[in-house]
Amino acid sequence: MGRLRRCEFDAVIGIGGISAWARKSGISRKVNWVGIGPKKVPRFGRRGPLVTFDHFVLFEEQGADFQSLAPCLAGRLYLPTSARYLFSDDFNQTEQAEVRRILRLAKNAPSSTRPTYAKRRRIRCRSKCC
Length: 130
Hints:
Blueprint: H1 2-5, E1 11-15, H2 20-25, E2 31-41, E3 50-58, H3 66-69, H4 71-77, H5 93-103
Antiparallel strand pairs: 1-2, 2-3
């Protein structure tokens, strides 16, 4: 989803899919996470920027059932030929209301933190080609 991180957006709602992996992980058809207020940091050599959020909540397997919380959106996403992601400029009024209901779950959540990565050791190339 690297290229999607470059898109302009105000919030993201992560929904558990319907695959065997999602079912085994306990996140299938659940609101998995919500992020509001993206901050993007370019990452050279990667498919997209690193995104953190002003407000972020991770539910994973404790997430609400998406079908119960947003039946119209669930109907669009869980069709066999449905898209893997939706943008709000294509939502009707009912779907917009469902999105607002889900975003309220993260309104008072703390910010996400930028992950810390172990420093890379520089390894000196001993090959004659370098």
